[in-house]
Amino acid sequence: MEKDDEKFFYEDEVAMVSPKSGLVKYGLVLTTNRSRSENELMKSVYNNFNEIKVIWHPNGAEEIIPDDKVVLMDRSLMPGDVVRKVSEGKPSQFGYCENINIYATVKILNTNKIIENISSRNFTHTKSFAIDSSVFYESWVGGVYDVKCKVTFASQDGSIFTLEDPYRQDFISLSTSDSFSIDDNVFYPGQKLKMCLDSFENAKFIRISNLMSCLWHNYKKKYNYKFVSKWVKVYVQDIAVSSVEVEWYCQTTSKIKGREENWPERIITGDNLKKLKTIDLFESCSIQVGDTHWYTIKDTDNLITMKQWRNKCTETFNTAPDLMPSLIKKETNYNKLLGTLNVSNENISSIKIRQIEKPSNKDKCMLQSKKSEPKPSTSTISTSSIHTLKSNRLKRNRMWKLLVKKNKQFNVPKVSTKPNSKVVVEICYTQSMIDVIWTLSLAYKILAYCILDRIKPLSEGVLGQYQGGFRPNRTTTDQIFCIRQIAQNSWEYNKELYILFIDFEKAYDSIHRSTLINILKEFNFPIKLVNLIKASLENTLIKIKIANAVSETVRVSTSLTQGNALSPVLFNLVLEKIVRGLNTIDGVAMGNTTIDLLAYADGLAFLGNNLDTVKQNCRKLINVAGKRGLKINDKKTKNVIIGRRSRKYQQGEFMEIDNHKFKRA
């Protein structure tokens, strides 16, 4: 690695062994300090350039530590990002990310179960629409400006109520992982919260218990809260989007012109929400530690406990085996001690409540004597009504204390972990598998263009007129024009036209390099150019990395390099050799010319007025191309029938040629 290279970047996933517990903890990089100037460094809390700020999962604690104290676990990359391969003692090689597959380890919320190695493509967002995300509605495209949700809450006493667009900061989270969340206004099913009594002003109760009605009555009567909490423990039962405000950008292809009066409404509600869809091409690549998603448990998933997973992660860091048991034992004893203290505190509080509830015998006698005393004659309220009011007040106070006691025993309904159960999971750890297209070095690029300038004029004398791709003054649109003219001519003369569009499977990656060199020699290219091309293709060695395992060195004998300036011309020459070996028969007559084959880049199109002719030419192609390493892709190869009588052929029918089946387009 270069001296001035950044070791970590924003939102990179890192890990370290906690000095307190001895277990591995994971986190995300928030800021790095290597790029700061000396003046900025003096004003900041950083001590040197090698320190980074990390937020640890799940408690959300932020820490500034030296970058050599943590280990990089996963990079925060997206498709299209430019990367550089760092090798000691070798020049750097640049490339860009083509495809990213992320596999995550998740925790099922409100349980202690862990599931490992889940593809991010199997996750679903807990929030249907996110602010600043792109959406489309019929033929219109826009961006989400605001989202209003109706959240259903349930309390421990059985009361169920809804709140329209509640503000997240009015609640206190009881989940440790919520403090890690970067987005403050996030609700998800099963989330445990403490809710302030002030928020009940806007609540709509679906079901209210006697305890909750007592609580709300005492709150409105300004009950003395000296010994009682003003918070109620609830959990999120359901979330429904009530409206989405969208700022519309433009309209795609449509018969209706995009005038202002035809634009959709800015606020989407009701059944129109079903037509509103999100545009998130990189959804599966943007997950990170701490995110919550919906996931459906599969039969093949292996569920383990949180303790087993943490011990497993710690073993991968080669932690000293004699240190681990004592640390785990210490933590267990500490939890036991806390448990006994909590129980004793609950007993003390319950004893105090009982002492308040049960008056002494002296108090009873005094109450009875007071009841027997006659009331003043000026009172307009009967003695029975006074007794009823007092008893109702005492009853409400008892129910109030009972509700407070129940709040201490707050539990969320048990989450099912059986297969096919839909649960909310939290990302604990990620691992990315990245497909990188490596660019070639600058020196070879210059050499490749020098060879291309000399080989391109020579190749024009070899290639036939059927090829329209990767040639000067020719494009694939020329071939499209030819097919349209042929189709129009066939319709005019009431002839059926059969076209088979052939696509090769991994065309560039299937070319045998030794076969290519022999073809260049057969076409009498200068031996000096042939040797230069041969030198650039030979002695290519690669190693394959899967997770942390690296394979042995493998010699590459096939494929043309992606991004190489010579590759298109070399592929055209291989295809020319294949076409010359076909000896195609018949075709479609256009004036004095018979056209039986058209090529557009790495694809072919066989044409004919007879179905048997097209099939026979395709059989020859399968045999000849197979000797050069090319295979036909059955899924992408399509056949088309154009003519006035083509209606008798149904769309979706297959054309069978030997063991190949090509679908009709």
UniProtKB/TrEMBL annotation:
It holds the Pfam family RVT_1. CDD domains: RT_nLTR_like. Residues 393-655 form the Reverse transcriptase domain. Residues 360-383 are annotated as: Disordered. The keyword Transmembrane does not apply. The lineage of its organism: Eukaryota, Metazoa, Ecdysozoa, Arthropoda, Hexapoda. GO terms for molecular function: RNA-directed DNA polymerase activity. This is Reverse transcriptase domain. The keyword Transferase applies.
